[in-house]
Each structure stands twice: as structure tokens, then as C-alpha cells.
């Protein structure tokens, strides 16, 4: 519960700093109803993640935000990503071909799939009623972490896209990956995002990634964007992937309701993944 509250609060701090500019510790403390020391810890965390720049007595949004590496992102919003991944795993059916984009939340989904396919063969995870029993899956991915997670998973055929490896995102991109996508189709595509905007689509640090994402989504019957609450409505970079006519946003309980409503107003199906049981 405390971690969930901190994630929600930091998302609101980032939103306020982005929309109003310079934010002081005192102003943030008053608006969010927490102590100044709590705000300072939040600002230190957001600064370490490259999302804010500290100033004397407060913080301001970065004019040119830096892209966090996949390793850095794996530890962020952990509970939220696990909740989203668990929900995403629950909609996948045996025998399907699914696309897992690169990213920390899709990496969590890969781990859920590994557990679900192990369950179908009676190996481990006893008592895990939250897991779906899955068999005969084909998983296509551009993400190195997904390949590693599913390399030895029973009942999963893994198709890894070739191309140039982006070290920051641990993702394959470029003409070779794009060519491979053109020869495939998917029952479901699960997309990662640096952020997602109701009007603009998926925001990324790298233009090459946006083209690949658009191709992935165009080849899928169902598209899901997996993004925890702090990623909604943000525009940290200037490269965008245009969304298909129909898609589903899967977020978590920390999501700001007005931000969620913006997606609903544009006809996007929104799923709030329930928090993991304690």
C-alpha cells in the first residue's frame, strides 16, 4: 500500500512540474498533503530516474529528458507492472500467436507466461490460482529479456526478430526487424511505451522504434498498450507511434482518473488492472 501511494504521488508530482513549470517543495507538500521530507525523497527518486531536474527548494521538468535504460526501468513501479502483466496474461488463450514488444512491463508479462505454461505441465507454482493454464503458444518478440525468459519455457515457440540491438532498450530495431514483421501476423500484440498520450499515441525516445511499433500493431487482431499510471498523458520525447483505430490501454490503480477519461473520450478501451493480492 505504501509503495502504491508513493507511485501515485510521484506521478502527480511529475504532472504538476510538467504542467505548471517550477514546483517548490512547500507547494507540493501543501497540494499533496504530505511532509516536506517526503516530497524531498520523491524528488530525489524522480531525479535519479532522469524525469526531473532538482533546483534550489524544488524541481523542474527536464527540457531534454534522458532515456532510462531497461535495467533502470525494471525496478520502477514494480507492483503496478506486475498487476498489468498478470491481467495481460489472463486474456491470452492457448494456441495463440502473440507479439511482445520490448520493455520492462512486457518482460514481466513474459515471466507470467513462463509460469502459466509451467503450470499447464504440472511443474511448480502450486496454489497459484491467479495463473492462467496455457499451452502451445507462439511468442514473437523484439525484446532480449523476453527471449531470455521464454528460452526454456515448455510449450512456447519463440520467434526473435532480428535487426540492430538498441542497448538502452535491449530491443531489436531497424530494417531487418521491420522485414520480419511484414511476414507475420498476431492474435494479440502487447506494446510497451515510454509514455502514452490519448491524442498522439505512444511516445518513444527513438524514432526507429516508433515505426517498428506501428508495423507490429498493424499486424495484430488485438492491440494492448501496457503502461502504468505515471506514463499516461506524458510527452517526454518527440517521437510518436500512431495508434490503430481500435486498441486497449491497460494501466493500474495509480492512474489519474482525468487522464484515464481522456482515453475513454477518444473511444479507447481502458482496463484498470487490479492490484496484486497481499
From TrEMBL:
UniProt KW DNA damage keyword: no
This protein's UniProt keywords: Transcription, Transcription regulation
Entry protein name: DeoR family transcriptional regulator
Pfam families in alphabetical order: DeoRC (PF00455), HTH_DeoR (PF08220)
InterPro entries: Carb_Metab_HTH_regulators, DeoR-like_C, DeoR_HTH, NagB/RpiA_transferase-like, WH-like_DNA-bd_sf, WH_DNA-bd_sf
Positions of the HTH deoR-type domain: 6-61
Cited Gene3D superfamilies: 3.40.50.1360, Winged helix-like DNA-binding domain superfamily/Winged helix DNA-binding domain (1.10.10.10)
Annotated GO MF terms: DNA-binding transcription factor activity
SMART domains according to UniProt: DeoRC, HTH_DEOR
Species of origin: Humibacillus xanthopallidus
Top-level lineage group: Bacteria
